[in-house]
Design goal:
2 helices, mainly alpha, about 55% helix
Amino acid sequence: MDPAGCATALTERRAALGNPELPRNPGNDRTDSKRTLLAAIEAAGGRW
């Protein structure tokens, strides 16, 4: 399946389920470097 087809199928499946809000990964097992990276992204105004 090509990326566009995958995106379309995913959008259709989510719509069929009522567009549920999926839970985010709590990040309990993240490495220190990953935590630092995510903090830097957030400090720059980004949302990971």
